[in-house]
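Much of our argument rests on the idea that a fold can be written as discrete symbols. This step matters because it turns folding into a mapping between discrete strings. The record that follows shows the chain in one-letter code together with its fold in token form.
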Amino acid sequence: MSRSVAVLVGSLRAQSINRITARALARVAEGSLDFDFVEIGDLPLYNEDLWQDGRGPTPVERMKAQVAAADAVLLVSPEYNRAVPGVLCNALDWGSRPSGTSVWSRKPAACVGASQGAIGTAAAQVHLKARMVTLGMVAMGHPEFYLRFEPEKYAEDGSAQDENLRKFLKTYMDAFARHIERLD
């Protein structure tokens, strides 16, 4: 049985290396996980004054509905200044409000990231995992995912064309699928 995964990518560029990585993960997970890419670039900056009768702005309500409907959450984040980009933090804040209506609570979740540097997004993921736990997500601890992005390892269609990369992505997605199943 295929599980649905709400995917939030912390980079807004259409061809960001993290969006490419997310698409490659979706390809290797086909058949066991269905990725639903959640738009977060249209969310206003979090502002408590924007809640009206318990409802947020339309983009917030759409995002919260997509996450609520999913079986799990995958956060795909670049690393900006050794931390998580503001756009992803903003989405996490909106999804946790108003008090008592968080869409993150008890969701099986994982975080991944790619960068051109040798350590991938290790520093950002430390911050992100702490936020995930604080928000009540059930974060997958292992295996960890730190990827040095090498564009020549990807095909034009976004799939991983390098066999070692494909195996790495598949191993991670298989572990995530098992994580989701255990929590079902």
